[in-house]
Specification:
Shape: elongated
CATH architecture of the largest domain: Alpha-Beta Barrel
Largest sheet: 8 strands, mixed
Helix content: 25-40%
CATH class of the largest domain: Alpha Beta
Number of domains: 2
CATH topology of the largest domain: TIM Barrel
Distance between the termini: 11 Å
Number of strands: 17
Order of helices and strands: HEHEHEHEHEHEEHEHEHEHEEHEEEEEH
């Protein structure tokens, strides 16, 4: 199928909708597997909060990855999609009792515990069920990340994790409980991180903590470093595959694992962001004194990242080869923040043009809402389009 024919097929679908390129997703999964296969003790859990669409979950499951969940609903979706419970980790600062019960009932791999009260509740619920729940303690390493303030998670002022000063006491508490099994430590410093120095800093902090654990005679079977690897939002077509080689090499070079330790990762955005695009059509052209607005039929109900924290997405006009002009691309929602980007160059836009908002596979469809009583967007894979 030629590019022109494919664009013609894309224009036939009612907009707005999500389009997932399964070829890019498979290339991404293959790149991750190629790096992980170099190490017998490396394990990847896909962070399903990035995207829970079955279109992307099926190839991720077939790749052999586990799942990182942050809600009971995500556990349900993961199990329904065929992911084995023994590959599911469950994180989050506010796990409800029913969610904990679901994890215990299904014998998930591990709870990433974020506070003493949570630890106590998990132990109590496991005792009531006559089971032992595996736990890792999420430690806040107080390591900053060069990313947006709203998606940094590893500083002492963030709500996530247990303070390093309390680590030994909480480990001893967990070891004295009869219905939890302490397995290791969990860390996560943020999202959309492109500077490898941030991950190197995390490695150094973990090394320090491990040395302290050794002095106390405390052994740790699992080190979970979370995810956080970013993607290229500026040039997604030129750089569709994230820096997996550099990312995994950081940990291989700088993290001093003990004999027999497993290293776990929780990658989300890096796996699915570049395979997804939000497709939207131009409703109206509006020419103010100082601005040209391309008003499209998608809004922050379909993709909230730009409105939520000023996230940038590459935007292209798929159905025009006209001269470049400057536009603000805005949606129909009755909020001033319903703007995808301002003062960007697009091929000359007219009513009915098909606009693609790229790199939308992560935190796009999964964060969609029905605000203004709008319908949730449908989704299609490249296989769906090619089959027509």
């Amino acid at each position: 199928m030629t590019q022109t024919t494919q664009i013609t097929q894309l224009t036939k679908k009612p907009t707005p909708y999500y389009y997932y390129n399964k070829e890019i997703l498979q290339q991404t999964l293959d790149a991750v597997k190629a790096e992980v296969s170099k190490h017998d003790n490396y394990f990847v859990h896909y962070a399903i909060k990035a995207n829970a669409n079955p279109i992307v979950l099926e190839p991720i499951r077939e790749a052999g990855f586990g799942i990182d969940c942050v809600s009971g609903g995500e556990i349900e979706v993961s199990l329904k999609a065929g992911f084995p419970a023994e590959k599911i980790v469950f994180a989050g600062v506010g796990k409800a009792d029913w969610e904990i019960e679901m994890g215990i009932d299904n014998n998930i791999f591990c709870f990433n515990v974020e506070s003493i009260p949570e630890l106590e509740v998990i132990n109590t619920i496991a005792e009531q069920k006559g089971k032992v729940a595996n736990i890792c303690l999420r430690i806040n390493p107080n390591v900053g990340a060069h990313t947006h303030a709203n998606i940094t998670t590893g500083l002492s002022e963030n709500k996530f994790g247990i303070d390093m000063a309390h680590m030994f006491d909480v480990i001893k508490m967990a070891k004295n409980m009869k219905n939890v099994a302490f397995k290791g430590l969990h860390f996560h410093i943020g999202s959309q991180i492109l500077e490898m120095d941030d991950f190197i800093a995390l490695c150094h902090r973990i090394n320090e903590l491990q040395d302290q654990l050794d002095e106390q005679g405390i052994s740790v079977g699992i080190i979970n470093v979370g995810g956080g690897l970013g993607v290229d939002y500026d040039d997604p077509m030129g750089n569709p595959i994230p820096q997996f080689k550099e990312f995994f090499e950081v940990y291989n070079t700088h993290l001093k694992l003990r004999e027999g330790q497993e290293l776990h990762f929780e990658l989300g955005r890096a796996i699915v962001a570049q395979c997804g695009s939000l497709m939207t059509k131009v409703l109206y052209m509006k020419d103010n004194t100082n601005k040209k607005f391309a008003i499209v039929d998608a809004g922050f109900t379909e993709l909230i990242r730009p409105a939520l924290y000023g996230a940038h997405h590459k935007i292209v006009n798929l159905t025009s080869d006209g001269p470049l002009e400057t536009y603000d691309v805005v949606g129909p929602i009755c909020e001033s923040s319903d703007t995808f980007d301002t003062d960007i160059q697009l091929n000359q836009v007219k009513r009915g043009d098909l606009i693609a908002i790229l790199s939308a596979g992560a935190y796009g469809e999964s964060m969609a809402s029905c605000y203004n009583c709008r319908r949730l967007p449908k989704s299609y894979s490249s296989e769906d389009i090619l089959a027509e």
